[in-house]
Amino acid sequence: MDYQPPPFFKRGPAPLALLSLYVALSVSLLVVDARFHTLELLRQALSVFTHPLQQAAHAPLALVANAGDYFSSVSRLQSENADLRRAQIESAPKLLRTQQLEIENERLRRLLDVRERQHAKGQVTQILRAARDPFSRRVVVDKGQQDRIVAGQPVVDDVGIVGQVTRVFPFVSEVTLITDKDQAVPVQIVRNGLRSVVFGLGNGQLELRFMPANADVQNGDLLVTSGLDGVFLPGFPVAKVVHIERDTSYSFARIYCVPVAGVENFGEVMVLEPRKVATLPPELSAEASGAPAAPEKGARVKKKRVLRD
Amino acid sequence: MQPTFSSSRILLPASRWFIVLSLLVALVLNFLPTAQWPAMPDWVALVLVFWSVRENRYVGMGWGFALGLAMDVADASLLGQHALAYVLAVYGGAALARRILWFPLAQQALHVLPLLVLVQLIQLGARLMAGADFPGFGYLAGPFVGILLWVPLTYVLLLPQYQPVERDANRPI
Q: What is the ipTM of this complex?
């Protein structure tokens, strides 16, 4: 029998064993988060710890900004106020006409039996900070689950689309900007109604991809949301075409755009309500949900019901 | 332990509360809006590597993992990205600790540089594999600023461990 002498010092598991445990844990977290996106609950739980720390870290900056506002001169405020009033009066006729047009449009649509357009409603939120991650374009806004924000809601400012809510925490939520590499917005060119999808490039620009080299796109064309995705309401300005490269050796033109909204600026944005899901007519919805097995299922249910009766 | 291998001063044992506090302060420094500036060092990585070199019995890979998860959540990055990088950096720091402490401070900083670069490279690799774009070489500038801070950081973090020099005229040796 050989006895191992007991260790003099307790040092826990061997470093290599610990290392492999932690590496395995983090790699599995990475893979699950990148592939399946199922760790939102863990994120929300951890954010309960990190959120107060982040708030505390940003508090001095907010304090300085507030102090600056407090000491800003009266004359500047007055001139700003006058400017705003003028802008409001200038836009008033257009707005009044728009209201009238909207009502008229609704009535006509009702007459034609076309579904009414959804009105844009939402909540005003403040952008708190840009996410530190240098690989993506995201901002954090100050409303979250408490204010019934859900992932997928579009975010606009006073001129156009800013982005989309992608992650919701108890008190804040993350908005992916339209200039992010993974963000795509279905758009339509105002001038001729040409539909396409605009993708972020990650450097503050957007690109209209997969447009044929002879597509009717010109510099200065305005792109608005087409609403075909069922997420963004149609008609919000998204971007303006600034540069087109047509090379006959490629089948697609390279079309670069810049966002219309102040996407990379800080300020207030509006989180629009999630768009209502368009319901299919009953005969179509039955067809859509039903594989060939559907009628059998229905029959079985009916039988059961009959038996129960 | 001594501040450097050639110093004749003996340090007091490190206080655990001070270690935890310094790690939390590093986390808050990373959350500051200044983190957006180019070539800002990753404070958490720097302080973690410092304590893993000095006090690897106390600051182990568990600390690296936990702080990494906190950074991931706060940073809106992939969950596990910082955790993996910090765990490996802490392991590297602890493995090199015996060697690093035999060098003067400037050369210690040169030993720490690969660990800090490793932290950035692992995160870069994880994100590139997940489909992100290369954010530019400015991303790799942080570690170089970080090692410039190694000497002041050593003095600040060892400050509570210094004891007053006692001069005893009657001592025989």
A: 0.89
